[in-house]
Amino acid sequence: MNRNLTGCCVLAAMLAGCHEQAAQARDATGAFNTMSCAIDGAPAFSASGKDVSVASLGSTAATVNLGLGMHAASIGRAHAISTGLVELPIAQGSYEFPKPGTAGGSGASYRIKNDANETLEDYTGSAYGQFYALAEQDPQARLVLDITRFQKLPPTVPKTQRLSIAGSFRFNAAYVAYVKGNLPDACATEALMRTMSNIGKPVSYPRYNPDICGAKRHRIECKFDVTENLMLL
Q1: Which residues belong to the signal peptide in this entry (predicted)?
Q2: Angle, CA 82 vertex, CA 164 and CA 171 arms, to 5°
Q3: What are the two backbone dihedrals, phi and then psi, of residue 179, each rounded to the nearest 5 degrees?
Q4: Is 51 helix (H, G, I), strand (E, B) or coil?
Q5: Distance CA 40, CA 173 (A)
Q6: What is the pLDDT of residues 140-160, one digit of tens each?
């Protein structure tokens, strides 16, 4: 065989292989997903690929049930941040959870674990509502998502919807060290006494005194850019 022809065939095969590998990389679910988060205003963690999680119970042509999160390791600790599952319209915009005028608490969380996978501190949006909210449906106790890109792409897996989503989210979360599954005695007693003294009066907020209960809080703010195939309902 002509040596030049052989060389051309080898080169063509190599280029075809590279093209195939590049296509597979582009189609790898979550391969290029990114997220960066700040804690109390200070840049803290960033993650990409498999360390960025996109959870979903499925999507329709108009809405998606979605949860965004990330995992990062730092100095012998594992840090996990999550929005919890929320339902969004497939459209740009700003969304709050729980929605204004509805009951419930934020499902967002920030968890810190040790090398043995034991939870050291579990900050949640719902706990913030109990220990720091200054009124019922306090806006500061809500998860807020600002979606700047919500784009439908051609699916790469049958019976799925491929979505490219970018934006940011923020929430306040609180943590209290429970004693054998219960709030510290002084914390629970103070809340009970305050409730009894306020019978017939407006509810006193926050529901629990954060200083007596030993509560701690954080402000979590994250930016994200994800593309995923989600089950089409």
Answers
A1: 1-25
A2: 100
A3: -110, 110
A4: helix
A5: 11
A6: 999 999 999 999 999 989 999
Q: Is residue 119 within 8 Å of 193, Cβ to Cβ?
A: no
Q: What is the dihedral of CA 85, 166, 88, 129, to 10 degrees?
A: 50
Whole-model pTM: value is 0.85
Amino acid at 227: T
Token pair of 77, please? 């600790």
Per-residue tokens: 180: 């054998």
For residues 142 and 93, give the distance between their C-alpha atoms in angstroms, rounded to a whole number: 16
Does residue 97 come out as left (phi exceeding 0), alpha (psi in the -120 to 50 range) or beta? beta
Single-letter amino acid code for the residue at 68: L
pLDDT tens for 26-62 read 445 688 999 999 999 999 999 999 999 999 999 999 9
Determine the Cα–Cα distance for residues 91 and 150; give it in Å rounded to an integer. Answer: 6
Pairing of strands 143-153, 119-124: unpaired
CA distances to 53, 131, 132 from 82, in Å: 9, 20, 20
Structure-token pair, residue 84: 């919890």
Which two structure tokens, joined as six digits, stand for 209? 């005194």
Instruction: State the DSSP code for 10.
Output: H
